[in-house]
Amino acid sequence: METLLMKGKPVADAYRETIIARVARALEKGRKVTLAIIVVGDDPASHVYKDRLMKLAESMGIYVKEILYPADVKQEDLLRDIARMNHNRYITGVSSDAVGTAVTASKDVDCLNVKNVGDMYLGYGTMSPCTPRACMATLEHYGIELEGRHAVVIGRSNVVGKPVANLLLNKNATVTICHSKTQNLAEITRTADIIVAAVGKPCFVTPDMIKEGAVIVDVGINAVDGKLVGDVDPAVVGKAGAYTPVPGGIGVVSNMMVMDLLTRKE
Fold first, then answer.
1. How far is CA 106 from the centre of its chain?
2. pTM, whole model, 2 decimals?
3. Which of 45, 65, 191, 231 has its CA 20 to 30 A from that of 216?
4. In angstroms, rounded to a whole number, what is the distance separating the alpha carbons of residues 185 and 208?
């Protein structure tokens, strides 16, 4: 069968002009939309993410404040500096892979503050982590029906698996969450109309684990022999009804979701 390739760029582009317009309105009012990015240590993946986020933000007129700390920074020093940013009216939002829960709810673009997490699970407001929002935006953009369908989420992290399951549930999908302790995983995934793979293992989901026509959302980003691959074996193309590629899929949309949250109040 022919597989719909759900590329991320068209989804991200659909948001771009709206975000640029918000930034322009803020400037007209004398406000600079400013994103502070905090990175602790020298983890290459964190710095790649930071660099891509900076490039995207600056391309839309968003100012970026890059804040780097050594791996051995004292937690109390980091928390003190985050508290300063929370009260800095010139900083619109903060992205931090370190102590994200310390970022005040109104500036928390990663949705790690406990208030934002609670609001998301209760269905209040629009705050949710950017990668799960990217999954939902992609499914919506490509017209994937969710109501009444069986969605299987592989992975139960607090930043992807759990929140994307909640967002799917809010769209009236029937959701099963699987993880490393799940028994007979392939039997479960073969019943799924939609699979969200967020397990962090290269090419983990193979064609024999899906049913004909299933929609596959690949959240994984894994480095293998110098190349980026997802959690889904590309061999599912031809059996899946729709599939997000890696690279060029959810990651592209996820970065744009950061900018969307950052400018929502403008």
1. 18
2. 0.90
3. 45
4. 11
